[in-house]
Each structure stands twice: as C-alpha cells, then as structure tokens.
C-alpha cells in the first residue's frame, strides 16, 4: 500500500471517529441545544421565572383503538402504503387497520415543568396549563433561539405575573417513548394523560399547590386535547385558549401528505437511534416539508427555523391517524373560549383563515369553533397576520402573546 493510500485511510478513520464523537455529543451534550430531548436541557425556563422540571409517573387507563395489520417497526414502504390507505378514505383505513376498542393501562414516565414568576405573581393559585402539538415538545412554550427569551410564552406569561405548567407529550422530549407506536401512543392515551395532569394541578400533586383556576392553553394537537377536555371534563378548566386550531378538517390530509412524514431514525440518525425509537415514530422528511406545514415565509428568522428543525420531535403514526377524532361538541362548558390561529395556517385554515363559504355567518374559519361551545361565557377569535401554523416561532409571536395574555387576564379576573 502506498503511503498516500495509508494517509487517506488514516484521515478517513480520524474523520469517522470525529463524526461519531460529534454524533455522540449531539445526542448527549445537554448545553448545545440539540439533544434528542428537543430542547436545551440546561435551560429549565426563562430568566424571569423560577422553574422546576420533574419526572412524574402517571398511572393511565384509556379506551384505545385496536390497530390491526400494523407493525411499529414496519419499513418506510409499508408506512407510506398506510398513508395511501388513510388519506383518500380514512373510513377504509379504519376497516383495514382498526378493530374496535380496548382498555390500555400503563404507568408512563412524563416530564413536566412548573414556572412561577420571580416578581409580582398576580395570583399564586392560578395556573396556565400548556399542551404542545405534533413535531414539538414542551419547549414550544419556551421557544428560545440562542437562549433568548423573546419567543418564550412562559416568559411573557411570567412577565404578566402568571404561573405556567407544561409537559412533554408521551413520545416526545424527556418523556417516555413507548415501543408500541399504534396501540399505546395514540389520541385517547394523550387525552387521558392531559386529564390526569389537569386533576393533579387541582389536587396539589404539582408544585405542592392546589391551583383553583386553570386556563388550558393548547397549540394544534395540544388545542385538540384542550378542546376535548372542555367536552369530556367540563369543570376541569376555567377557560380555554386554542392556538393553531379550527374545526375545519380540509387542511388535515394536506398536512399528513405535505409533511412527507418519514421514520425519525432515518431522517435524524444523529439524534434518534433505532434502539430508542421504533420506525413508526415519524418526523417531516425535509426542511421544505416542515416549512410547508408549519411556517409562512418570510415572516420568521432563519435562526428560528434552524432551531426548530434541529429540535424537531417525533410523532407516532397512531397519533397521526387518531388525533382529530378527539374534537367534540363541548355542550356543558361554560367558561370563556379564545381561538388564536395564524392567518396563513395550513392544517387548520388551508393557508387562508378568511376563506369562509359564501353567505357564511362568520368572517373566518376559526370562528366556526363557536358551534362547539353553545354555553360558553364568551367566544372570541384572534388571527395574527403573516403567521403560519407554528405561531410561537414567527415574528408575530411577541404581539400574539400580549393578545393571548389579555384573554388570560380576563379569564382569571
Ligand atoms: C442552554 O441553556 C443554558 C442555561 O440556560 C445556557 O447557558 C446556554 O447558553 C444554552 N445553550 C444554547 C445553545 O442556547
Ligand atoms: C401506579 O400503579 C403502581 C402499580 O399498580 C402502584 O404501585 C403505584 O403506587 C401507582 N402510582 C400512583 C401514583 O398511583
Ligand atoms: C418492506 O417490507 C415489506 C414487507 O416485509 C417488503 O415486502 C419490502 O420489500 C420491504 N421494503 C424495503 C425497501 O425493504
Ligand atoms: C373505500 O371503500 C369503498 C367500499 O368498500 C370502496 O367502494 C371505495 O372505492 C374505497 N375507496 C378508496 C379510496 O379506496
Ligand atoms: C390527584 O389526581 C391524580 C390524577 O387523577 C390522582 O392519580 C391522584 O391520586 C390525586 N391525588 C390526590 C392527593 O387526590
Ligand atoms: C435543513 O435545515 C438545517 C437547520 O436549519 C440546516 O442545518 C440544514 O443544512 C438544512 N438542510 C438542507 C438540506 O438544506
Ligand atoms: C373549510 O376550509 C376550506 C379550505 O380553506 C374552505 O374552502 C371552506 O370554506 C371552509 N369551510 C368552513 C365551513 O369554514
Ligand atoms: C352542539 O350542541 C348544541 C346544543 O345541543 C347544538 O345546538 C349545536 O348544533 C352542536 N354543534 C355541533 C357542531 O354539533
Ligand atoms: C369577550 O371577549 C372579548 C375578546 O377577548 C372581550 O373584548 C370582551 O370583553 C369579552 N366579553 C365578556 C362578557 O367577557
């Protein structure tokens, strides 16, 4: 072997060791902001709040869909074929891949963070309960680019004197990622977890404090859960703030197809290993498909996009196929309801929130959610301009937070 060839081999070995070390650091270094947790785990919250992150063990029983002819470790060919079954005809998909319901009981390990304002808490026994959506973890609510606080809703809330509680949904962030991506990680399980955390906020199991007023705040699939809570447990929440939400399903198929959802371990091998995540945990395939679903160009910074992509979280195929089924008529909910949806939201407005049918009694698509709230004390809608589905990551976020907090102030008054 020539010395040049030996040199090449030595260089390529060194590079591969460097690459491995780099991957290892990406997966485990808590301060570089790109751990598989999806957030900078050294950051527990913004500078203006005292935050406590904790792992909770929740015993959950839920009435789940029974999937059939599925395999959480099926390859991408099979997963894509399932999208083809589902997209044109969800009912046909159900006939092929679902077979009744079953009770599923498990203890789940879930990470939650309580943040209280450092100065001038308005009411220490009031809390905003924050539930994030698909593709994110709880850091959606403390979205931070270069460790700054200006996109952090937790920070805006603390500045206004409010306590917040957020948690990583099952299968995201620091929470457990169960290996069954169909029968376990699906919408009824998530709703049962959301219900349990709400009850725990009421009964003193979180922060040693019995919160007596709770405003539920969701984003996207998190809003679907908050909406479902107002229907299934109408006295659990005092008010509901549904961000990135409507009850118009037109954009949902586009969301599922446009994201080109693909096996997380193949798209982000540096962050997710097949030992940790089965194949049916998915992420959007490429930067552009993430952009299609969540962003409205050019009304955000490249750094915000980069931060989101570097920390994108997986979603189980079970959740993707069951999520919108949770939305229900909240006939007994009497609190106020506020919907905040970006004017160019794709999944819930099909990129135009003002595209109502001719002769509509409403001026925007999100206003139709009023039909789900016959007894609500008040129903209102805010549509930030130049904003896509991920409201908290666009330039409009700080102004949107002030508007949201006005609603929260009224709800707590
Ligand atoms: C991670 O969080 C720590 C603690 O807040 C902070 O000092 C550090 O700058 C953060 N890293 C990044 C990349 O934001
Ligand atoms: C959850 O269930 C386990 C096993 O049944 C039990 O030991 C534990 O005390 C329960 N935990 C809670 C918080 O109820
Ligand atoms: C995926 O799995 C199916 C069923 O086992 C198999 O027929 C197919 O060849 C596999 N595709 C690839 C690309 O491995
Ligand atoms: C769905 O199933 C119905 C009844 O079996 C069938 O007529 C229809 O062609 C199917 N649609 C699709 C898109 O597969
Ligand atoms: C609080 O609520 C949770 C969830 O429903 C329940 O498991 C727990 O036993 C309750 N704790 C108390 C002290 O009531
Ligand atoms: C995708 O976005 C990430 C984060 O912004 C960036 O590092 C990467 O180069 C982009 N990939 C491509 C193919 O553009
Ligand atoms: C639902 O959304 C579609 C797509 O934007 C729109 O054409 C339709 O008018 C909307 N329907 C209602 C009732 O808002
Ligand atoms: C919700 O229930 C109320 C009262 O029963 C009814 O008037 C309303 O039409 C229902 N809305 C929807 C969307 O089903
Ligand atoms: C209803 O909500 C709107 C918008 O938040 C607010 O301006 C109005 O004061 C509220 N009305 C009541 C009766 O709370």
From TrEMBL:
Key words of the record: Signal
SUPFAM superfamilies xref list: alpha/beta-Hydrolases
Domain AB hydrolase-1, first and last residues per copy: 130-399
Leader sequence segment: 1-19
Record's keyword annotation contains Signal: yes
Domain of life of the source: Eukaryota
Pfam families: Abhydrolase_6 (PF12697)
Record carries keyword Signal: yes
Protein name: AB hydrolase-1 domain-containing protein
């Amino acid at each position: 072997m020539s010395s040049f060839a030996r040199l090449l081999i030595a260089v390529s070995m060194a590079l591969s060791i460097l690459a491995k070390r780099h991957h290892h650091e990406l997966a485990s270094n808590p301060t570089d902001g790109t751990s598989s947790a999806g957030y900078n785990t050294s950051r527990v919250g913004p500078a203006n709040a005292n935050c406590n992150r904790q792992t909770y063990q929740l015993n959950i029983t839920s009435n789940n869909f029974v999937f059939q002819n599925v395999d959480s470790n099926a390859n991408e060919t099979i997963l894509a074929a399932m999208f083809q079954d589902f997209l044109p005809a969800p009912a046909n998909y159900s006939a092929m891949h679902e077979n009744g319901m079953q009770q599923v009981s498990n203890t789940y390990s879930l990470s939650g963070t309580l943040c209280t304002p450092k100065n001038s808490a308005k009411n220490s026994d009031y809390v905003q309960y924050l539930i994030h959506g698909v593709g994110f973890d709880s850091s959606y609510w403390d979205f931070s680019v270069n460790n700054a606080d200006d996109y952090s809703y937790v920070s805006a809330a603390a500045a206004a004197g409010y306590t917040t509680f957020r948690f990583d949904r099952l299968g995201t962030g620091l929470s457990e990622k169960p290996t069954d991506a169909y029968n376990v990680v699906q919408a009824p399980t998530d709703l049962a977890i959301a219900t349990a955390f709400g009850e725990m906020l009421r009964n003193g199991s979180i922060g040693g404090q019995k919160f007596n007023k709770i405003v539920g705040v969701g984003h996207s699939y998190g809003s679907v859960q908050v909406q479902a809570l107002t229907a299934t447990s109408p006295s659990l929440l005092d008010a509901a703030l549904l961000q990135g939400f409507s009850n118009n399903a037109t954009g949902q198929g586009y969301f599922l197809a446009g994201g080109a959802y693909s096996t997380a371990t193949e798209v982000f091998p540096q962050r997710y290993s097949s030992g940790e995540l089965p194949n049916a945990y998915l992420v959007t395939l490429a930067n552009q498909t993430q952009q299609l679903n969540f962003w409205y160009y050019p009304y955000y910074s490249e750094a915000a996009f980069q931060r989101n992509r570097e920390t994108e979280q997986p979603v189980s195929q079970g959740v993707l196929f069951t999520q919108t089924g949770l939305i229900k008529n909240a006939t007994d909910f009497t609190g106020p309801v506020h919907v905040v949806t970006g004017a160019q939201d794709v999944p819930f407005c099909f990129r135009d929130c003002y595209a109502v049918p001719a002769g509509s009694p409403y001026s925007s698509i999100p206003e139709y959610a009023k039909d789900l709230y016959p007894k609500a004390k008040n129903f209102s809608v805010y549509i930030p301009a130049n904003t896509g589905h991920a409201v908290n990551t666009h330039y409009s976020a700080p102004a949107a937070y002030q508007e949201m907090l006005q609603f929260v102030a009224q709800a707590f008054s």
